[in-house]
């Protein structure tokens, strides 16, 4: 019987890294090897399977159509190989070993400082690697196996995932007291001046949650969407440029401290977002993620 030569996981890792970066040097850096090593590994893979996967020029790296398909298959193989280790960890001590979690920017600075000390205390064998990124890239990373779980706000379409809601995070209107009234008194969505509303730029799901809560289609057309972070928007509002919507967790974390702004709870049909932990469906570490979700809820 003729010997069968199979691609190695290392070769598949090189191929996926090259597709992600589009550059041999950056792909080599991501794999912690030299550029010549990575290039040789991909050439060996092409020789092994007898097809060209990558067209190489001086200025651009272009995958062939078959190269794209094989790279996507390689992602699934690498993810399943990682899950072999996950299965072993899941059979050992709960919440131990490495775990990669993405957190969206409208949650990370307000929730992580509270929950991380408790996680370190209760699960000292857990090595939690954190990545802050918007919901779209975070869910893409989860489905491609770059991330194990994501802390994000629902509703959001994140693919074939399992989710566990941690808590409700209410939305507030924030601005000068002279413009939005006394603190603590709710404000109806119909009272918001759409020409004064400042929101996060596209790519942040909080913008969509805020607009959906108001149920006013004209707000999407008229609101100014330019903030890259909630802290930046608060500074603009404090300088008289308008009003904005903030989640309760940001207010509890003191985002309005040292400003002249007040916040009023939003009165609307759905005046909140759901904070949830999501992970790939049928993951062998599902019990770990459920345990982590419970710990995050308690820490909140």
Description of the molecule:
The mean pLDDT is 86. Helix content is 45%, strand content 24%. It has helices at residues 9-21, 24-31, 35-49, 65-90, 108-122, 135-144, 177-180, 205-214, 217-222, 230-238, 248-252, 286-299; strands at 54-56, 61-63, 97-103, 126-132, 149-154, 161-176, 187-188, 197-200, 224-227, 243-247, 261-267, 272-280. The strands form 2 sheets. Strands 3, 4, 5, 6, 7, 8, 9, 10, 11 and 12 form a 10-stranded mixed β-sheet that branches. A two-stranded antiparallel sheet has the order 1-2. Helix 1 (9-21) crosses helix 3 (35-49) and helix 1 (9-21) crosses helix 4 (65-90). By secondary structure, the chain is an alpha/beta fold. The N and C termini lie far apart (61 Å). The radius of gyration is 23 Å and the shape is globular. The protein folds into 2 domains: 9-87, Winged helix-like DNA-binding domain superfamily/Winged helix DNA-binding domain (Arc Repressor Mutant, subunit A); 97-300, D-Maltodextrin-Binding Protein, domain 2 (3-Layer(aba) Sandwich). It is built from 12 helices and 12 strands. Strand 3, helix 5 and strand 4 (126-132) form a beta-alpha-beta unit.
